[in-house]
Amino acid sequence: MNRRQMMQTAAGLGLGVMLPNGLFAQSIKKLEFPPLLDATSSQKFRLRAQAGETQFAERAGTDTLGFNQGYLGPTLRLRTGFTTQAEVENTLDEPMSAHWHGLMVPGESDGGPHQPILPGQTWRPLLPLDQPPATAWYHSHVHGATARQVMYGLAGVLQVTDGRDDERGLPSNYGVDDLTLVLQDRQFDWRGRIKYTPGMHETMNGFLGDTILVNGQIDTAAEVPRGLVRCRLVNGSNSRIYNLWLSDGRPMHLVATDGGFIDQPLPLTKLTLAPGERYEALIDFTNGNDTVLMSDNVNNSPMGGMMGGSGGGAGFAVLPFRIDASLPVRITKMPLHLNSDIPDLIGADATVRRISLDMSMGMGMMMSRSGQQFSINGETFDQKRLNFTVAQNSVERWVVSADMMMHPFHIHGVRFQVVSENGQTPRAQNDGWKDTVLIDGTAELLMQFEKPASATAPFMYHCHILEHEDGGMMGQFSVA
């Protein structure tokens, strides 16, 4: 087995890979980054949902979906403080949508299940942005088809910028020291075709792949300069939870959560990344040493699993980093402060709302083939039923509890601060603004509803294990 095969096999089987400096220097291909579609000047962009055929590594071609290309989509860059005109054309033979996950926009522009784009149609929403800089993403959100369409590639990354990264001392050279990293897991059959045939077990636990992809590629390494490198980490997997760390023990300095920058870089040796979450971290390569981004095997099963724990073994390789001395070095010193918009909501008089993420078990689970085993507060998602209405600009405290396993919980159209997790101070990585959080037990979330959403174009709240979402663990609310 050569080095390439070892890396691929280890990633697929979840085996531990601890590669010394330079071991993979000549054996792993260079990671490519999604094309950058910069709309900061024009304030307009166009996406085209299309079918394609993609060859992953040395495998045969497989049918895929993408935006403007065969698999995944370009990285969109939008300017906060402006309104951007979007156009999304559907050339597929089935409905799809474009949900701007992490954008604080009105419900009519959100792109959820109430805004499907039919075959041959084009959707033209306006995106008025007044939020802090952040890494968001976009993906199809048609109820009952979200998991499959995202699995086959209908997703991409979205950057909101204010053009002041140089003032903050942050790396900003796209694809050089500012790296967009979409983490996914996929299954392939013996011919190299994507295999997505979820049965009862995969629906209950969420679908897990046997091969790790970064930016839609297998068996690659990120080539980096000998300086500070900014990693925009996006969990685009259907259900896999990553618990990330670096093979040589160096820290990742967290600088941003879902909703934007934190106050100052936070050194972490481990970073949990659940489906739908995004984090930005700085990695220091000034010592000239390569390293490997690793993940623990996180066991998230209601059938006797270890809640919040890791499986056996030393974990698996996600992405090697290797130094390229020819790349320009721009930033070598860690910024001290990021001048962020830190959470400061006051919730003393906030309305308390309790949200229970529920799963059916026993014979009801075993016998169900309708996807109705998932619910919130005992109610399975009904697109015709509005679960509740909140007043615009009101503040609420949501107490969200997870039933039987961990659930990544996402709310459209708002950002929130995590007040507590299981009655304790939140994990350090959750100190900033969030729109998606991993619920392992109970969490308290404090939020203000600034953007309007009508009863015909409401906001969603749901588990971001996509099989659970499609199966009914979702609700909707209006803001008026």
UniProtKB/TrEMBL annotation:
Keywords attached to this Swiss-Prot or TrEMBL record, sorted alphabetically, are: Metal-binding, Oxidoreductase
* Gene3D superfamilies, sorted: Cupredoxins - blue copper proteins (2.60.40.420)
The record's annotation in CDD domains points to: CuRO_1_CueO_FtsP (cd04232), CuRO_2_CueO_FtsP (cd13867), CuRO_3_CueO_FtsP (cd13890)
GO MF entries = copper ion binding; oxidoreductase activity
Keyword set includes Oxidoreductase: yes
Q: Which InterPro entries match?
A: Cu-oxidase-like_N, Cu-oxidase_2nd, Cu-oxidase_C, Cu-oxidase_fam, Cu_oxidase_Cu_BS, Cupredoxin
Q: Is Oxidoreductase among the key words of this record?
A: yes
A Pfam family cross-referenced in the UniProt record is: Cu-oxidase_2
Name all Plastocyanin-like domain ranges.
52-162, 210-290, 372-479
Cited PROSITE patterns: MULTICOPPER_OXIDASE2
Protein name, please?
Answer: Blue copper oxidase CueO
